[in-house]
Request: fold
Amino acid sequence: MEEFKLLQRLEDFEAWVMPRLDSFPRAEKWAAALEIKRSVYRLQWNAIRVQKTPRRIPKRKAGAVMALDEELEFLRLRLRIAASRRMLSQRSHRHATKLLMEIGKMIGGLQARIAQGAQP
Reply:
């Protein structure tokens, strides 16, 4: 069930971040903005992998959750760099950080349940 909430939060984040990427300077739209977009898409892809991986294969599910966590960290890095280069306002960066923190807590919950042996 938590995977469905995670997918919804990722869709909400995508809807929020994409218009902000359109306002990046032209020179950066095809580099920085594209990397951020790809990272959002990979997060969604990995969330679907977590959701679709059968419970009877815990190692595969744990690997999918780890990939999700790694991609989230990459996205945080790209947004931090965009904010430091003033492509993203500090206010937008704070909001993105808040949204990604909520997503990170959901991913952390999945990791904890897998570590305890319970299947998400």
Summary: The chain has one domain: 2-115.
